[in-house]
Amino acid sequence: IITRRGSQLNHLTEKDLVETGVALNDRFTATASSELAIHRAIYQRTSAHAVVHAHPIMALSLSLVDDEIVPLDAEGQDLGTVLVVGRKVIRDVREVVDEVAALLKDHKVVAIRGHGTFAIGQLLDEAHRWTSLLEESSRLIHATRALLVRGRGVRLVGAGAGRTVLETGAGYGVLFERCTDCAIESLTVTGGARDT
Q1: Cα–Cα distances in Å, from 96 out to 14, 69, 118?
Q2: How far apart are CA 165 and CA 144, in angstroms?
Q3: Mean pLDDT of all residues in the chain?
Q4: Is the dihedral of CA 56, 61, 62, 66 positive or negative?
Q5: What is the gyration radius of the CA atoms in the chain, in angstroms?
């Protein structure tokens, strides 16, 4: 069972569900979701009995800037590291069918850069749980980062300490990660619980 092509999550009804084959096309295949090929590959190559494909906004935003999503919270750590597939934003999931199916042999959920997530389980509730856990963990990651700085030679320069204040309201305030020759100059960062 898969959603009908063009159906929307917040308006799903029983009519939006299509029963079609996992291996062979039938008369309902043409009406199935455009992600049918990746669903089929996951069922055929993993032990999954249920697949949830979603577009969770916080996880999706992390997939645009990170190659992996590493939950910080205790519950989220049940997911392990969530890998992000694709070097660029993936518009057509048929480009990554094999990679996603292969990764889901050893992972509960995989993110596709700029597209969404695929989670597996023995039951639909389990796959949904992994998707929800990833989204909640992604919210926490966003809350702790505030401003993430990466790159080379990045400088945040103010008009003077106390005169220029960057108030982040998040744990790290400004997080320099994989940043070479980066610095904060003449700037006060405040608002985060870990400010020093």
Answers
A1: 29, 18, 12
A2: 19
A3: 88
A4: positive
A5: 20
Q: Are 110 and 98 in contact (CB under 8 A)?
A: no
Using DSSP bridges, classify how beta strands 116-121 and 109-112 pair: parallel, antiparallel or unpaired: antiparallel
Q: Does residue 193 have a pLDDT over 60? A: no
Q: Which helix (H) or strand (E) holds 180?
A: strand 174-180
Judged by DSSP in three states, 6 sits in coil
Q: Say if strands 68-69 and 82-85 run parallel, antiparallel, or are unpaired.
A: antiparallel
Q: Write the DSSP string, 62-131.
A: HHHH-SEE---STTGGGG-PEEEE-SS--S-GGGGHHHHHHHTTT-SEEEETTTEEEEEESSHHHHHHHH
- Would you state the pLDDT for residue 195? 42
Q: ∠ CA 40-41-43 to the nearest 5 degrees? A: 65
State the amino acid at position 176 in one-letter form: F
**Other CB atoms within 10 Å distance of the CB of residue 29:** 14
